[in-house]
Amino acid sequence: MIALTATAAQAQLIFEPGEDERFNWASLEEFGAAHSGLEGQRFNILGPWLGGDQELFESVIPYFEEATGAEVEYNGSDSFEQQIVIDSEAGSPPDVAVFPQPGLAAGLAAKGQLKPLPDEMRQWIVDNYAAGESWADLVTYAGPEGEEQLYAFPYKADVKSLVWYVPENFEDAGYEVPETLEDLKTLTEQIAEDGETPWCIGLGSGGATGWPATDWVEDLMLRINSPEDYDAWTTNELKFNDPKVIEAIDEFGWFAKNGDFVAGGVGSVAATDFRESPAGLFEFPPNCYLHRQASFIPTFFPEGTMIGEDVDFFYFPAFSEVDLGQPVLGGGTLFSVLTDNEAAMAFIEFLQTPIAQEIWMAQTGFLTPHTGVNTDVYGDDTLKRMGDILLNATTFRFDGSDLMPGAIGAGAFWTGMVDFVGGQSAEDSANAIQSTWDTLQ
């Protein structure tokens, strides 16, 4: 093993290089050998991570510092979206920014405030990430002259296409985990026929009430329409009141607007807070058997709940009769360079290495579509299985509402879904959302 540059950061290395064979230490050696001329250079990173996520990200940085001799400063902000725009327009941007939303990065790229990444990095993403074309497209934007280029690198993903259940409840009732969306609908009907309630659904979230329904619709859009239709929908090239979108909304209604299918009846769907909605899974007897929500929802499970034992999850399945592969809905963070700092650009290359991902993987809260990492490094089996969902994806799409203008994705779409579960038709709800979008043209 090559000698890593000795800096003060060495004491911060939480996994000693070379000591755990699960890690791809060779990738760190190779990166260090290729970037030996960075010693003494400095750059800063601005991102949205605070608290635990900041600590976890900062546990990765010392490996870059050790390999190169460069120094990195990370600053987290709870108002990142506003801060990055202010700093960029003032001519004092950070060297690197961590974007939680592609739309924000695309907007800065169009203004010429992001630096294009190396041309070969796009092909690297295609070749080394599961559903690589999806990820490469996610970070390819139009520059100030309208030319399409790679302006960001995706690092750290989240999975939303999950359904949660209690294995003991399934075993007692004789239910099996569905492998297709047809099976999931059959299971829903079977649970209701057995006199039980299939789903717990809650859309309540204060001023953001309605957002959980947008995830349902997005997942269903990917299961009945092509990825190209989904992309066109998020830009309004495919109108919100197009029959394809209305069909997806109605599919959500099949689950959410049947009083026999949801705990508390249809009237409780919008009134129940999303943080409290999974509670029915854990009641005795069960108040519901299924709950569709993203990978973060265990935060709101009863204290001491063991995932894999007390509760488990499965992939929100695709229709077998619709040939759209295994689509996955999710989110993630994207790294961009905003200055001509050589070390900053090298840091993006560092994020490509297996070791830059495995260090965080081995702790908590990190998922990746990188096919070159050792998934045995994941800190627990839950993360490994969620990671497998990403690796098995044939299509990955970012949360659609986060790609839409704020007035839609964080406004009319939310309220439209509340109106829909309140009794409005899918067509009327879609028309209302499209009317709002029309005012933005």
End-to-end CA span: 58 Å
The whole-number mean of residue pLDDT values reads 95
Strand percentage: 5-15%
Q: Would you list the SSEs in sequence order as H and E? A: HEHHEHEHHHEEEEHHHHHEEEHHHEHHH
The geometry reads as globular
Which structural class is indicated by helix and strand composition?
alpha/beta
H/I helix tally: 18
The profile of the biggest β sheet is: 6 strands, mixed
Radius of gyration: 23 Å
Helix fraction, binned, reads 40-55%
The overall strand count is: 11
Seen as an oligomer or otherwise, the chain set is single chain
Uncertain residue ranges:
1-11
How would you describe what is shown here?
By secondary structure, the protein is α/β, with parallel strands linked by helices. It has 18 helices and 11 strands. The N and C termini lie far apart (58 Å). Helix 6 packs antiparallel against helix 7, helix 10 (211-224) crosses helix 12 and helix 10 (211-224) packs across helix 17. Strand 4 (140-142) and strand 5 form a beta hairpin. Residues 1-11 have low confidence and may be disordered. Strands 1, 2, 3, 6, 10 and 11 form a 6-stranded mixed beta sheet that branches. Strands 8-7-9 form a 3-stranded antiparallel beta sheet.
